[in-house]
Specification:
This protein has 105 residues and is α+β, with helices and mostly antiparallel strands. It has a domain at 35-104. The protein contains three helices and five strands; from the N terminus they run αββββααβ. It has helices spanning 6-14, 76-84, 88-96, and strands spanning 37-41, 47-53, 58-63, 68-71, 102-104. A hairpin with a 4-residue loop joins strand 3 (58-63) and strand 4 (68-71). Helix 2 runs antiparallel to helix 3. The protein is globular and about 60 Å long. The two termini are 44 Å apart.
Length: 105
């Protein structure tokens, strides 16, 4: 953003242009790895919600029994297939559970 003079500021105010405080700190943004897809509530008798952190390849899965697991190094296509699966529980058990490192959270 170019610096403006007092005259330029007065002209901008008179024209109704939005004012920007050049001394204000920039708004904080989330770290890229914290950007999240979801959480998505899914139709399943086993899985309750699914959330995915694409920049870190983390998949969070909350089960209907209340347990929540974080799976590491899950590729985005696997997450997309999980969300698109007709049976989330069957896909979870066959393609995610015991195939990726995880921890209970």
């Amino acid at each position: 953003m170019p610096l403006t003079t007092a005259h330029d500021d007065a002209t901008a105010r008179a024209a109704g242009e939005p004012q920007v405080d050049a001394t204000a700190a920039p708004a904080p943004t989330a770290a890229p790895w914290m950007q999240l897809f979801g959480p998505y509530v899914v139709q399943s008798s086993v899985v309750s919600t699914v959330a995915y952190y694409p920049y870190a390849a983390l998949l969070d899965v909350r089960l209907k029994n209340g347990a929540c697991y974080r799976y590491f190094d899950v590729p985005m296509p696997t997450c997309a297939a999980f969300l698109a699966a007709a049976s989330k529980g069957r896909f979870f058990n066959a393609q995610i559970k015991d195939r990726f490192r995880f921890r209970r959270v």
